[in-house]
Design brief:
Helix content is 19%, strand content 41%. By secondary structure, the protein is an alpha+beta fold. A four-stranded mixed beta sheet has the order 5-1-7-6, with helices on both faces. Strands 2, 3, 4 and 8 form a four-stranded antiparallel beta sheet that branches. Strand 2 and strand 3 form a beta hairpin. The radius of gyration is 14 Å and the shape is globular. The chain starts with 6 loop residues before the first strand and ends with a helix.
């Protein structure tokens, strides 16, 4: 019997001046849809480092972690299979905003006028905003 286990991802949330940073996905699943920047943790990499790396790769922004938002583990949250994500609240430390790597675009949206997001990112964003109050 082959042992199955979930895969691990890390996402970054950046809120600045009443806006949140989202990326438009370049690849499936959900190609062309908006999401928090993030991706898979590499073997031997700390989850926190993966969040900072993925945000840099997808948005061009250098960041540092402020806090852990939460762990999201619903087995149905990703159509590729059981994928658990750790979501971190980040602060910008430098860089120039541009979509790259797996993101065809990266931009800030007013937190009161968000586009439809994919995966369970609408739940994650609601959790972030509830914590910010």
């Amino acid at each position: 019997m082959k042992y199955k286990s979930p895969k691990l991802t890390a996402d970054g949330a950046i809120i600045k001046n009443g806006e949140i940073l989202l990326i438009k996905r370049k690849n499936n699943p959900f190609k062309g849809k908006w999401a928090l920047p993030g991706g898979f943790v590499e073997y031997g990499e700390k989850v926190e480092d993966a969040a900072v790396r993925e945000v840099l790769e997808e948005t061009g922004l250098k960041t540092k972690i402020i806090d852990l938002v939460g762990i999201y583990s619903d087995p149905n949250r990703d159509p590729r299979g059981h994928i658990v994500t750790a979501v971190y609240l980040l602060e910008i430390k430098g860089g120039i905003l541009k979509g790259s790597d797996d993101a065809e675009e990266a931009r800030f949206f007013n937190i009161k006028k968000l586009p439809e997001t994919c995966f369970d990112h609408n739940i994650i964003i609601k959790d972030i905003l509830r914590r910010k109050k």
